[in-house]
Amino acid sequence: MDQRLYQVFLTYVQRWQLLLTAVLYVAVSVAAVCIGPLQMSPSTLRKVSPTFPLPRPLKKFSDLSELERTSDSTRSVFVSTNRLQNSKPITLKQLPRLSSLEILGVFQSGDDMAILRSMPNLQAFSYSSNLPWNCLRYVAEAQDLRYLQLLALKPDQGLSDLRRLQKLDVLEIRQIEDYRLLFNEIRHLPNLRTLILPGPKATTFQGADWEQLRSVPRLQYLYLEGNIDGPEYTRIEVDQIQQALPQVKVRPSPVNDRRTRVWTFIAFASMLASGVLIMQLQTHFAHVQSRIIPNYTTSHLLVPIVFWTLSTIFNTVILWYANCSFAASLAGSLIVPGLYWWLTVAMLRSAKIQNQASTFSPYFTAMMCFQVLPNSVTLSSFFLGDIDWFLSGRQPVLAWGITIASVIAPAMALRRIPRLHSLYAECSAGVPPLGLSWKAWNVWGKNLAGSQEGTWGTRLRSRRSAALDSLLATRNPTETSKLWIAGNEQSGWQLCMRLLMMGTAAFLFIQVFRLLGYTDPTGGALLMLSAAGIIYVDIFPLAQVIVWRRRRSLLGYELLRPSNRQDFVRQLFAAMARDQRPFLVLHLLWIVVIWQMSTITHLPPWMIPGIICFCVFRGLSIYAYALLVLAVKPIWIVIVCLPIVWSLLSFSSAYLALGCTRPENWSPTIAIPLFLTGIAFALLGLVWIRRYWERLELA
Amino acid sequence: MNATSQTIIQTQHLAKEFGTKRVLQDVNLAIPQGAIVGLLGTNGSGKSTLLKCILGLLRCSQGSARVYGENAWDLSAESKARLGYVPQDIRLYPWMLVRQIIAYTAAFYPRWDFKLTDRLLEEWHLSPTDLVGPLSQGQAQKLALILALGHRPELLIFDEPVASLDPVARREFLKSLLEITQDERHTVLFSTHITSDLERVASHVAVLRHGQIEFFDELDVMKDKVKRLRISAAEDLPPQFAIPGALRTEIDGRRALVAVCDLHPHMVEELKSKWHADISVEDLNLEDIFLELHHA
């Protein structure tokens, strides 16, 4: 058994894609923890800020006196002490390399604070107690300071010294008696980009206060909540403050941003790793040996199950560490593996169903309802600007509900896994299952033709031609549907590329819209919708056609009689349309989800027709592209140009849809040209269809 | 066929349909232990489908297929460990080295014969350090055969095992097969188009036609049964000239060529006296028999 597991394990790690993905997965996950949402260097933030509960510095002392024994090479120190009297007199040696210092203790006088003078390279300073009287001047002597966190500031501490911190990037003050004095000073900080101000409540600010904040030259972020105390804000209050500071991104809490960031990275990495693992699993079950070799199923399932268990624990810990609620952490960690288990089963099932000449089955619909719906809710919430809606555990019922659904889904999928090999075997009888090679396609074609069996490589051309002629002679869309699936090859590279495209497209899309300020739930859900459109409606079928042509599987097309070509393309499109039916259901489900969410986000009801138009528009564009891929030579032109055209179309349509929901962030000067560009491309597509229709000798 | 020997493979009224297309119907087959059965049939006759049903790769639409007395669809791990299979379309992990794929496969079998696999690798000129992906079709087939033989299975099922092999490799494969099966404990079922190979190794022949077993018996019995009569009559033979049990009749004036199944000596005498004809009885090789059976 050990030897068997070892060998199976080797099959997983021998593929460098999987190893690379695993490395990427860990790297991205760690990066998710390390990268803060602010502008300071990640290392600095990680070391100094209690707001960002990151790994503590390497050097950790319980008494200031120990600081004296610190080596010159130390760059970061965390001192946890209130026993300062034991370490007096402080005669610290110079610590020129110290760049960050966090002190949880009491400095009783200016002499104590004077230790900052021995740290000329200090960039980050955090002091979690009341600052001694008139001591801010010592802090201000640290001219390179970029991050400053203070518990409280009183007017008698010489606030004007703050002006000397010309490099200050992030300022966090948890309590302040007179915020107007502070605002007056920070106006003179040219590099201040982030202000964390948990109190007093910003809704009490007056017009002049906003004016002062607006005059801070480079202020980009205003965080309103701390992670421990301070006032809480409703969404409406945050929106009101945002309106008062239109140039600044107003967020409730930096913790919130951090959670979002970590969640995004975790989801992306998990999606990639799970996808590659599923790909490998499919490879293992895609050949007949899986039915012949004894004890095959258990051995090959154990490795991914162990991996997923470990990754779930890993992700849960990271998310929990990033201040997500436990339920949300667990749900977020389980959701992607769950989705992939189900996708695997669904793909197999789909292949089986295709074999029985029906793509759209009650099973598929049920799968969509049970799995995609909870996933879409969660993943939509993952794109929310206000991540606390889900991650912070403010919706415990939802978080636990999704967790349970996420556990049940893989469990149900697992129940079916032992039957996968038989499904594959059944599929291989009439239709090559997903994962077959080009050669296997020919076997299938040969079987279908039923008259030219022979050895490999001898009569491939005639055999392919005969198979296709035979197909077309039947004029049976079902047969073409089989042909379509046969073209749906799932070699490791292709699937890897698809997953990469899927993950990258979704990730980039989100980031672009984040940059544009779309952080509301509606925007997030719409982005999901758009991502779904990209993934399912555009990329998959196009990839299939491209793969067909790249692998010369369409050689048979050129051998076809011209009279049969028109039938071929028509039936090909019919098969594509059937393939897309389940995904149309997916779109509709998403619309329902968004509609349901509209009760939360005050979504205008008239956006629904916009989304439907969006879906139809996207769905139709695929046919033009498919024709282009079929006809244009050389193929690389299409491969290069297609993503550009596709991106423009996607962006324009998504932006159009977003405009329906957030008019205040939507600019007609951007939307109209984009929309017109989309229309232009659509028209151009029609012209191309006309042109290449002739080239394909279809006219 | 030895009636006392154990039946390894048994199908009863086996039928398999794909949609509305019936590929196999009412297939009854009982293969005893130690038999080397060649499965013959034209393209589309259902050979691969029958093998897949026997292996449990396809579920029978009707009837049953049993291997070692177990339902083929639910074979136990013990039974699987006793059988080896080489499919028509060979799919191996392309990223593995030859020795890696052997080690991987060996891990699933308690009694893997590394000496045998090493010897076969050497005889068939396969390097253990070669990558599987770039192997030619023939080399991949050799490797698949090695993987199927490595655990010395008691039941071997091959779907056109030598189709991609060159004549030298084919001969070596047949030689190895004979060596492995010489103890009469091994049972082999294989489909092939190369009847000369089948004649060399097979003890039994099954002919599949239109999804049904048309003939299944020992090879020698088959050869004894099917004969060709070369008739030269005194006068022109009528168009309706027919002989009981004739598989194919070719008439050309006074001459006729008739392939007959179950020819009895008295039948020849009757023909001689009835048509005043000279009749020579010719033995047929397996290829001729196959062609006659399919009216070629």
Q: How does this model look, in words?
A:
- The complex is a heterodimer of chains A (699) and B (296).
- Chain A has helices at 2-13, 16-34, 42-48, 64-67, 110-113, 136-140, 179-186, 207-214, 235-244, 254-285, 289-292, 296-321, 326-355, 362-382, 396-416, 420-430, 438-449, 460-474, 477-487, 492-515, 521-550, 555-559, 562-601, 607-631, 635-661, 668-695, and strands spanning 59-61, 76-80, 100-104, 124-127, 147-153, 170-176, 194-196, 221-223, 249-251.
- In chain A, helix 10 runs parallel beside helix 13.
- Chain A is 63% helix and 6% strand.
- Chain A has 699 residues and is mostly helical.
- Chain A has a 9-stranded parallel β-sheet.
- Chain A has 26 helices and 9 strands.
- With 296 residues, chain B is an alpha/beta fold.
- Chain B is 31% helix and 31% strand.
- Chain B is built from 10 helices and 14 strands.
- Chain B has helices at 47-55, 77-80, 98-106, 114-123, 137-149, 167-180, 195-201, 219-225, 265-275, 286-293, and strands spanning 7-18, 21-32, 36-41, 62-67, 70-71, 83-86, 155-159, 187-191, 204-209, 212-218, 226-232, 246-252, 255-261, 278-283.
- In chain B, the strands form 3 sheets. A 6-stranded mixed β-sheet of chain B has the order 6-7-8-3-9-10, with helices on both faces. Chain B has a 4-stranded antiparallel β-sheet with strand order 2-1-4-5, with helices on one face. A 4-stranded antiparallel β-sheet of chain B has the order 12-13-11-14, sandwiched between helices.
- The relative contact order of chain B is 0.14.
- The mean pLDDT of chain B is 84.
- Chains A and B meet through helix 1, helix 11, helix 16 and helix 17 of A and helix 1, helix 2, strand 6 and helix 3 of B.
